[in-house]
Amino acid sequence: MPAGGYYKKAASAEQEEVGIKAVVSEDHDRAAPRGTGAVKAAGNYAADLNPVHAAIKTGYNTTLYLDAKEQRYVEEFSVANFVGVTHDGKYVTPKSSTILESTTNILLMQIAKARGMVVEERPIDFEAEIGNFKEVGMCGTAAVVVKVESITRGDKTYTFDSFDTIASLRSALTSVQHGDAPDEYGFMTEVCNVFDDATDKPACDSPYESAGMLSAVGIVDGLEQPSVPLVRKLFGPKGAGGPTADMATWYSGYERELLDHVVQKATPGNPDSVLRSMDEFWRAKFPRLQEQTAARWEEKRRTISEKTAAMVAKSVVSGRPVRCLELGTYCGYSAILIAKLLPEGSMLHTVESDYLFAAFATKIVEFAGLESKTKIWMGDAGEESALLRARLENEPADLVLFDHSRNQYVEDLQRLEDLGVVTAESAVLFDLGVHLGDATVTQAQHEVIREFFMDRSSVVATML
Question: Which first-to-last residue range defines the signal peptide (predicted)?
């Protein structure tokens, strides 16, 4: 499902789409022949970081790269494919062995061919051909296709006023993705529901069979262990304390249904109505799980609300905005709990590592009417931490909720303290029950963990 949110699109069908401004990168190459430009790898994307940041600083939105050998042929925008429609109606996109082929671009070409359009995959000579295009877009998985308003190279700027054809192709693709139009192209593959709604049991192969679904993963032994080893066992090693690969599969079946439920049942712009509809959805899906976790869930709601309200009360006295930080949000429930209490001018920054969860959370927060008080960033909390200080306007956070993966709590807390994001004045909350299937934490173990975190003079910690 397209995530959106990368670049601003039209707010309605009647409003003209806002295009982005690109600049040709003259000092950097995106990839080289016989290199790894066509590989889906982190290093492939990293090559664009400095050039795109430089472009943004000079007033552009993104970069356009030409081939490394001759600086003549179009490669791609930043990390998105170049697509264009010529004045005579042809769909043209570069053919190059040095860039990653976009699946979205492949699907758009298939739709274009089905409509009778001429589709050409070939080298595009920038200087000789850029003036032949009436429409240009940048194409990728999350954004689908975004309108390009202009491309600048040196002292010359090429503008593209139209976007009707590409927008129509995009609409056809997203309609199939959302299930609003029949799949005439063979894009979609039907899979079974992860769970049988009638029994709360797996409907297809899954390790969570019968009551075993609730069994603890890596249950921690008793308190004969010293406090630090206990904390390390619960909060590490890397990869523990979060959903297993199987848990991630379990989660992925319901977020779309949740979003649909919220849109159908909740009142737009009413955070409490959205929260109620989310509660209703999960109660209906898993009544047995809800009964077992109701008390802990209510404690989490109450604690987050009380701590946020306390920070807001302090801000009224000081006259300064409240700055909140959340690490991990899933579909935005706790973000709404916090943001709905914030006064105007205050802000919650959320970091979510799963881009689909971030997309769902963004839409649900927007539906609740809280987009002016909430910013959801996609990325790993550790990797994003260096940017958080600037996003918080170089001020410490008043409230921080750790709600991502337990294995990262200690490391991320230390990092945020070192950066000055967390100080002695910050209220810090740690959720120990991050994911269904996590290890059961006894009250005695809870106290050991609390002592570990409370033994830090710079943190006022609450364990959920």
Answer: none
In single-letter form, the type of residue at position 446 comes to: H
Domains, the chain, with CATH or none: 20-178 (3.20.10.10), 290-462 (3.40.50.150)
Continuous segment of H or E residues that includes residue 92: strand 91-93
- Residue 259 near residue 360 (C-beta atoms within 8 A): yes
Model confidence, pTM: 0.49
Residue 325 has a pLDDT of: 94
Q: Is the separation of the CB atoms in 407 and 240 below 8 Å?
A: yes
Tokens of 117: 């359009």
Residue type for position 190: E
Site of tokens 């590989």: 39
Nearest in space to 95 (alpha carbons), one of 46, 38, 47: 38
* pLDDT band per the 50, 70, 90 thresholds, residue 176: confident
* C-alpha 319 chain-centroid distance: 32
- Selection from 83, 95, 180 nearest residue 133 by Cα: 83
pLDDT of residue 179: 76
* Coarse DSSP helix, strand, coil percentages of the chain, rounded to the nearest 5 percent: 40, 20, 45
Contacts of 262 (CB under 8 A, 6+ apart): 274, 277, 278, 281, 364, 367
Q: Compute the distance between CA of residue 7 and CA of residue 143 in angstroms, rounded to an integer.
A: 8
Percent of the chain with pLDDT over 70: 71
Which residues, in sequence order, are CB contacts of 69 under 8 Å at separation 6+? Answer: 32, 33
**Secondary element (H or E) of residue 62:** strand 62-66
Residue 292 pLDDT > 90, yes or no? no
SS3 73: strand
Give 169-188 as a 3 state SS string: HHHHHHHHHCCCCCCCCCCC
Cβ(194)–Cβ(202) below 8 Å: yes
pLDDT at 7: 47
Asked whether 1 and 31 are in contact (CB, 8 A), the reply is no
**Alpha-carbon torsion 40, 41, 42, 45, what sign?**
negative
How open is the CA angle 187-19-138, to the nearest 5 degrees? 40
Regarding predicted confidence, which is higher, 243 or 31? 31
Q: Which residue has the higher pLDDT, 162 or 98?
A: 162
Confidence at residue 249, expressed as pLDDT on a 0 to 100 scale:
43
